[in-house]
Amino acid sequence: MKRHQFAVTQPVRRTSVQGFNVWAVSINLLLLGALLVMALRVVPSYMEYLTVKDLITRAAGEYDPRSETVTDLRVRLAKLLNTNQIYDTSIDDIEVYRERGAIVIDANYEKRFPLFWILDGVMKFEDLIVETAPTGRT
Questions:
Q1: CB 74, CB 103: distance < 8 Å
Q2: Which residues share a beta bridge with 129?
Q3: DSSP output for 9-31
Q4: Distance set, CA 97 to CA 57, 86, 88 (Å)
Q5: Annotated domain spans of the chain
Q6: 18-44 pLDDT, tens per residue?
């Protein structure tokens, strides 16, 4: 090859551009939207459940069987629920009773909420049973 001659090059092949088409993008957006709606429906109920669980545990821990009655415990629970703006559970839904020398607080409940169109979601919270320390006989 001489200085002034140019090397013959092969024409550059252009590869086709690959990616998402309209249908793939719309299906992905639909799935993302469905997950977002589910999260927005489930998370507030779950956060309220965690608050109720904390309130029940705190009320049972602060209960003094020597100076308080079961009615005092129910009043404290009602005030705590009202102060923390708990709307899924009322004091009427919580059972407080004596069993084997201890006070049992049973606050199990379920939450139903609309999910999509005619589909409803149900969350059952069945671990909200707390016992206070048993009272000894003196």
A1: no
A2: 106
A3: -PPPPPPPP----HHHHHHHHHH
A4: 15, 22, 21
A5: 41-131
A6: 777 899 899 999 999 999 998 999 999
Q: How many residues does the chain have?
A: 138
Look up tokens 């404290």; give the residue. Answer: 76
3-state SS string over 28-77? Answer: HHHHHHHHHHHHHHHHHHHHHHHHHHHHHHHHHHHCCCCCCCHHHHHHHH
Residues 96-120 as b or e (16 or more Cβ within 10 Å = b): beeeeebbebbbebebeeeeeeeee
Residues 6+ apart with CB under 8 A from 86: 48, 51, 52, 55
Backbone angles phi, psi at 116, to 5 degrees: -140, 135
Reading the block at residue 78, the tokens are 């009602």
For 74-97, how does the pLDDT look when each residue is reduced to its tens digit (9 = 90+)? 999 999 999 999 988 899 999 999
Return the amino acid letter for 65: P
